UniProtKB/TrEMBL annotation:
InterPro entries: Abitram. GO terms for molecular function: actin filament binding; actin monomer binding. It comes from the Eukaryota. This is Actin-binding transcription modulator. Signal peptide: none annotated. The lineage of its organism: Eukaryota, Metazoa, Ecdysozoa, Arthropoda, Hexapoda. PANTHER family: PROTEIN ABITRAM. One of its GO terms (biological process) is dendrite morphogenesis. GO terms for cellular component: dendrite; filopodium tip; lamellipodium; nucleus. It comes from Allacma fusca. Coiled coil: none annotated.
Length: 195
């Protein structure tokens, strides 16, 4: 009789367990089970390069050591809300970053960049001289955002506003990243700048 009661009780527990509705996505969201931070904040470490002319850049460093380069929120183009006329990757008479062709695991064919290499030129309606975007590190150029050529206004968008993806030289990857500023150092640098 005791065995029968135990079997019945365990079956009742199973029925109750399976009859309960699964938690809804709304409930799980309210409990904080989902990471709702922007993609940039979830998968990348932000580093910054501050230029003397205010041409600051954000480097989104992925765990695979690749870096996405974009304009920092304090870049004059974004702060002054300048109208972007065009973006060109033709950085000299003989060098066009759009001609970059990469293949294979070793990224053969990638253009080699130094810390002073020009990635692109950004022309704005409000001024005659272009903004020159520098690489700021020794790296291989893996990809440029060629969409910026036809839609330069994307540089001001919250997504798709990257300029290039680079692979820093692995032999001194850590040293190169140490030369860039962390978020805290960047904010401190901004507070000491003349207005």
């Amino acid at each position: 009789m005791l065995n029968l009661c135990i079997k019945i009780e365990s079956r009742i527990m199973l029925i109750e367990e399976f009859s309960r509705a699964p938690p809804s996505i709304v409930e799980e969201f309210a409990e904080g089970k989902f990471d709702v931070r922007p993609l940039e904040d979830r998968y990348y470490t932000k580093k910054y390069n501050c230029d003397s002319d205010g041409g600051d850049y954000t480097f989104l460093v992925h765990s695979n050591k690749l870096c996405v380069i974009k304009l920092a929120r304090t870049h004059p183009i974004l702060v002054r809300n300048l109208t972007i006329k065009s973006v060109t990757f033709q950085v000299s008479d003989t060098l066009n970053r759009l001609d970059n062709r990469v293949s294979g695991k070793g990224k053969r064919g990638a253009q080699l960049l130094t810390s002073t290499s020009t990635l692109c030129l950004i022309y704005c309606e409000e001024q005659s001289e272009p903004y020159v975007v520098k690489t700021c590190m020794t790296a291989k150029l893996l990809e440029v955002n060629d969409t910026l050529v036809s839609k330069p206004e994307l540089l001001k968008a919250d997504n798709l506003n990257y300029i290039a993806i680079v692979s820093p030289r692995m032999s001194d990857h850590e040293i190169q990243l140490e030369n860039l500023l962390t978020e805290e150092q960047y904010l401190e640098n901004l507070s000491t700048r003349p207005t």
